[in-house]
Automatic annotation (TrEMBL):
Name under which the protein is recorded: Ubiquinone biosynthesis accessory factor UbiJ
Subcellular location: Cytoplasm
Gene field: ubiJ
PANTHER family: UBIQUINONE BIOSYNTHESIS ACCESSORY FACTOR UBIJ (PTHR38693:SF1), UBIQUINONE BIOSYNTHESIS PROTEIN UBIJ (PTHR38693)
Family: Belongs to the UbiJ family.
Single GO cellular component term: cytoplasm
Pfam families: SCP2
Residue ranges annotated for the SCP2 domain, each copy included: 15-111
Keyword entries, A-Z: Cytoplasm, Ubiquinone biosynthesis
Species the sequence originates in: Enterobacter hormaechei subsp. xiangfangensis
GO biological process: ubiquinone biosynthetic process
Main location: cytoplasm
Length: 201
């Protein structure tokens, strides 16, 4: 069984649950009604095509027609798109390429920015509100704990390499080295000018 239909169906279910369930998002959804957004992730060989309608969002792996807007980016850039202010900076830096009507991707970013991504909403119909909220809170706490632990381990590794094992220079040593090389460069330039002056006599 091909995996692409499973992936597109999973993405479609998640996006429909978050973007099309809340009635408060109706005006933001209407701006995208009838639009087609093609997302090309450089890590994958096939693009994802988002087809917006009044009642739902279809995620397709293949699309014969023209897309209103095409976005070419990396997977790591997608979470940054939730912040509307970063979109222009991402386009300027080359991390995000937009072809076609940029208003479509801006409206999609605005819609996803207004939507609240809470896993408890997906779990609540199956296991109840209290259990879903408990699992969601546990997942948030666990991910924050893991993130904090990872940052701590990175800091420890950096300190071990620079302070204990002396395998890498510390920040002050790098600054001192940069100043010393700049001083040597200035001395060489001065010596070169003096030699040129002496040769000219």
């Amino acid at each position: 069984m091909p995996i692409k239909p499973l992936v597109t169906a999973g993405i479609e279910n998640v996006l429909n649950a978050f973007l099309y369930r809340a009635p408060a998002l109706k005006t933001a959804r209407q701006r995208l009604n009838g639009k087609v957004l093609r997302i090309v992730l450089k890590e994958f060989s096939t693009p994802l095509v988002l087809v917006f309608s009044e009642r739902r969002l279809d995620v397709l792996g293949e699309w014969e027609g023209e897309a209103d807007c095409s976005v070419i980016t990396h997977m790591s850039v997608l979470p940054k798109l939730r912040d509307r202010q970063q979109m222009t900076a991402l386009i300027r830096s080359g991390e995000l390429e937009v072809e076609g009507d940029i208003q479509v991707v801006q409206n999609f970013v605005a819609l996803s920015d207004q939507a609240e991504f809470d896993p408890a909403e997906l779990l609540a119909p199956y296991i109840g509100d209290i259990a879903a909220e408990g699992i969601s809170k546990t997942l948030r706490t666990g991910s924050a704990f893991l993130r904090k632990g990872l940052l701590r381990q990175q800091r420890y590794a950096a300190e071990v390499l620079t302070e204990e094992w002396r395998m890498a220079p510390g920040p002050l040593e790098v600054a001192w080295f940069a100043e010393e090389t700049a001083a040597v460069e200035r001395a060489v330039d001065a010596l070169t000018k003096r030699l040129e002056k002496l040769e000219g006599k």
